Amino acid sequence: MPVAFIGLLRKETIQFFRDRVILGLILWLYTIEVVICAMALSFDVENVPMAVVDQDRSVLSRTLLQKFALSQSFDLKHQENDVSVAERHLTRGEVTTIFVIPPGFERSVRAGNQAKVQFLQDGTDSNIAANSLYYAKGIVNAFVREQFPQSRDTNVVSVTRIWYNPQLTTANFMVLSMIALAGMMVGVIHPAASIVREKERGTIEQLLVTPISTMQLFLAKLTPTMIMGILSVFPSLLIVRAFDVPLRGSLALFLALTGVFLLSAIALGVLIASYSRTLQQALLLSFFGLFPVMFLSGTLTPVESMPVFLQALSYLSPLRYYMDIITGIFLKGAGWMELWDETLSLLAIAVPMLILALAVFRRRLK
Q1: Which domains does the chain have, with CATH numbers?
Q2: 162 with 150: CB under 8 angstroms?
Q3: What local confidence, expressed as pLDDT, does residue 54 receive?
Q4: pLDDT over 60 at 37, yes or no
């Protein structure tokens, strides 16, 4: 090989191993990232939050409920006497399935008559809804075979009612989740790239000698991304309309809460830019932050199906709360009274991150 080429190869190798950011990212992607994906991205539906309404209160109904309690597929969160009370849990998103055993259930089954049980299902995420119903009906059928092995006819019939997405169309959830992911990516990558570009060109030093404060520079970098992020919603509404996704709630509330969500994304972008020297590092660090936020948000896999420690980490993902907001407004017609909890959670993430981003941004510039 030519000596010049060997020298160039040696130089590039030394530069590569001196870049601690790149080395750290590679180590993360090939180790921790693989572990998180393997544990979080499961298509099995487990621990689906369920409310039960046992209006029969018989030995047979309690035995059936015990089957659900012992199943890994469901987590019995509430046991109510009134269906309307259980429906409020479903409306607030505390459960995604309601199982109703009507009065006279045991008497009908023992007499050989047809007995009906009812499932009320949140159809916002069609994949979770379909799998939940499949598992639930499987438990009921297995219970009947166990209790009445001699019976040839299934004398327990499951009646299903799907809320919010009766046809269980996948497009509704997918379109809304892609809008949420796009908002997160733009909110993180745009301010990070903007600030690092100034560093690479050397123009950020010129800005610092002008009569503007660090706070003004910080706000100037945030504002265009915020405006662009909110305006980008309007082209997305055309896509929403094209896929017949309903908008049952307030558009103004959606825009306002999108702004709150973007604050946390922008703060993460500024933090990334503060620690990046090149655009390449900024982009790699952006994806380093985006992947965990996306995996832990519940957009790909239900949070309830993840290991307990990953469920705890998911509370740090702003995308988790924004998904509840966007699906709530579009598919459920949720208003401020139903979404104030998610809004406060977003603010609890966004405000400290903005304060930290400003502090780091100011310190790194000095």
Answers
A1: 48-163 (3.40.1710.10), 170-365 (no CATH)
A2: no
A3: 92
A4: no
